[in-house]
Fold Diaminopimelate decarboxylase.
Amino acid sequence: MNHFDYRDGVLHCEDVALTRIAEEVGTPVYVYSTATFRRHAQVFRDGLKDCGRVHLAYAIKANPNVAVLRVLADEGYGADVVSGGEMARALAAGIPAADIVFSGVGKTRAELARGIDEGIGQFNLELEEEGVVLAAIAHARGTTAPAVLRVNPDVDAGTHAKISTGRAENKFGVPIDQAPAMFDRLAPLDGLALRGVACHIGSQLSDLSRLEEAYRRIGQLAAELRAAGHAIDRVDLGGGLGVPYKAGDVLPSPADYGAMVARVTQGWDVELMFEPGRVIAGNAGVLLTEVIWVKPGVTNPYVIVDAAMNDLARPALYDAWHDFAAVEPDGAQMTANIAGPVCESGDTFAMGREIDRVESGDLAVFRTAGAYGATMASTYNSRDLVPEVLVDGDRFAVVADRIAAETILAAERVPEWLTPAKVAG
Ligand code: LLP
C-alpha cells in the first residue's frame, strides 16, 4: 500500500502531481510520501502486537534522509545505525540515544567511544574482540556499555547472494556454536552489560520459514545461555522482511511476519528488538525521471532516461526489478529496454519490458525506490548527486539538494607541483 496514484491521468504523490515536482525541482529526483512512511511504520508495529515487549529500531541505511528520520521518530521508532555518520543523523533527527542500536561489522574504536559518550542503547557485537575493546573503553570512562552478541545462525535466507548475511561463510556475527563460550568470557568483563543475542540473515526475504528457522536457533541459544546462568533480557531479530517490487507480487505481510514471531518467541520472556529498513521505506518512494531519447534498438527500442545507475544502483548491483510507469500514460504500451546515460552496459534498468508508451520529454517513475535508492547514489560519470523531495498532503519540500557536478569539482585540488594548464591559443 502506498500513496502514489493517478488522478485525472497524472501520477500523484499524495495530493501533489509529479509533473509539478519535475517542473519545480527538475529530474532525476527521488520523491517520498510521508503518509506511506507513517502507514508502514504503523502496520509493522501493529503486526507485532502479540509479541510482548518490542523495540523498533528503523535500519536507517535504507533511507537515512534526516527528514525521513524525523517522520519515523515521530512514529516512535528508534534507529539501527552502522557508522558514526548514521549515528550523527539519528541523533540530529531527535532520536534518543537510548533508542539507538549500533550494528556493523567494522565499528572503529573511535566510533565505539563516541557511541558510549552519546549513551547508545545497544551495541551489537560482531566478534569477541570488539566486546573486549568496548568493555575497556567504557570501563575507562567509568561506565557500562549495553550490548548483545550477534550470532550467525547458518541459515540460507533464500535471497540474492549480495544481500544474504546469515550463512556460516558470511562476514557477519559469530558462529552460533561458539557463542556460549564467548558469552562466558565476555559477560564478566567490567564495562560491559551483555544482555542478549542478535541475528540478521539477509534482506528482501520472501520466505518466512528461513527467518523462522533462524529465530528458532537463536531462541535455543538464548535458553542455553540462561540455563548457564546468564541474564538474557533482549533478543534482536534484525530486519529483512521483503517488499513487492513487481505489480502483482505477493510477499509475506508484516501481519504474517508478526504472527510467526509471536509463535516462535512465545515464552522467551525478553524484549524483542527489530531492525526493519526496506519494509518501512521501500514503497514510500519513487525515482522520478524524464525520457531523453527513444533510440531504435536491434530487437526493442532503448528508452534512455535521465536517471542512471549512479542514481539507482539496485538493478546494476542485484539485478533488481523496479516497476516503470509513465506519469501521464496515454493508455498505449510498448516493449522496450530502459537505460540511463552512464557509459556502462550495466546501466540498464530493464530489458524487453512491457511498459507504458513513452516519448522523448515524457516523465516516468521507477517505483519502490524509497529504500536503498538515494542513499546508494553516487556522482559517477560526473553527474549531479540526485536530490530528494518529501511530500506531505498537498505540500512538498526539497529535503536533500541536488549537488551539482561543479560543486564536487570545486572540492578537488590540483597540487602545486603539477604544471598549470596551458591556456588554449
Ligand atoms: N539490520 C542489519 C544488521 C542489516 O544489515 C540490515 C540490512 C537491516 C537490519 C535492514 O534490512 P532490511 O529490513 O532493509 O532488509 N542495498 C541492498 C540491501 C542491503 C541490506 C543491508 N543490511 C539492496 O538494495 O537490496
The mean pLDDT is 96. The chain has two domains: 4-31+282-410, 32-278.
